[in-house]
Amino acid sequence: MERIFLMSDRSSVFPHTDAADWWQIIRKELKGRPEETLFTEWWEGFQTPPFHSAEEPRPVDPLFEAYPWHASCAVGPDDLPASALKVLNNGADGLRIQFQPNADLTRSLIEIQLEFLRIELLPGELSGTWIESWKDILASADKKRLNTALGFDLWQGHSSKGSGAMSFQKQLTEFRAIGAAQLFRHPILIDCSLYAEAGARMDTQLGIALSMAHEVLGEDPSLSPEHLHFRFSLGRNFLLETAKLRAFRELWSFYLDSLGRSRTEAFVNARNSLRPLSASDPHGNLLRLTTMAVSGLLGGAQNMELTDHTLGGPKNGEAHLPVNILHLLRFEGRLDRLEDPLAGSHSIEALTEHLAEMGWSAFQEIQRRGSASKVLCDPWFARRVAEEAEAEQNAHDHGKYPVIGSSLHPFGSGDMKMEPSTSLWPLRRLAEGAEKERSK
User: What is the DSSP string of 209-276?
Assistant: First the structure.
């Protein structure tokens, strides 16, 4: 009679094999070739082994609970509220709204039911008439149901020449008045996406995010960590980007513990990076947006935003595709509510731990040089980001990290024009050089 194996019988079917046994088999198959060839090199000095053993200790508790995440879109400042209503009709349930300081938000947000959305306001300045109009909106809204955030970057005016230090203090003074009025659930933005787009490595991104948070909490002890929200830019490396967000959650808990403060959940905004996108293959970019979005959701982002896939603006009839990726993941992929589904995964947990350690080291190095506002004015930090960007660019140029559709299997003309950036932290797109060569 045929035997039916139950899960309880699996030990008799698969005999125990430890790491030493596997390495013995692997060395035999390698026939003298070095074991190092099987290790994955993520960047210089950061390698992981070809497998993880069941004997290795690993965390199994989830880093975050199940949550209803938001599918967000950026709008404005032109044609409000029509532009906002358009993306909401396409299914978005989050808005990141740019507007001028003199905007009347009672008109810009008319007909929009704020209680059902994630609303992030991005004013050109902290001061302006927009504040009074926002107060008028809040006066007639159910504040307990609002999920609102201020998206102003307190460090946005910094430069390597040091002109940003005073600007930060002045902006922080203006911000305190806004914070005291309790106008937002998350009034403080910690935005490290700018440095990611300039080429900063993941440990540098984690370090500067903690340093920024440390500065604002240190400047005003009355602020609660719950007032903060964080923005990360996600690249194409699926496993590492997922582990990066998980590592940040570990670091945030460790950081609060080190201050003796009670743990609070970090609100994480994630958006796709423009750095690995192809100017000549917009539909290939849609695939990249998909993997970046999955990285964000598996990593614990509560708010996910995808930019247009053409870099220069959506083509006719295709503007809805990026947000539809999020709808597919939510409704068809059933990724609508997740309780850290990767908890206990040997590979992901190992990457998470390694990135957390490297991120903490980067944070400590930044702090030794002063506060975030001082370091962002320090040429040392600009050089660090530029060197990290150059290392990745060299790997790309030598074929190690190609951009499909541009540097490998090219598609289209690649002659899309982008305005050069004058920022200290310009977008450094990997495939730009290869595309220029092809368009000559």
Answer: HHHHHHHHHHH-TT--GGGEEEEEEE-S-HHHHHHHHHHHHHHHHHHHHHHTPPP-PPEEEEEE-STT
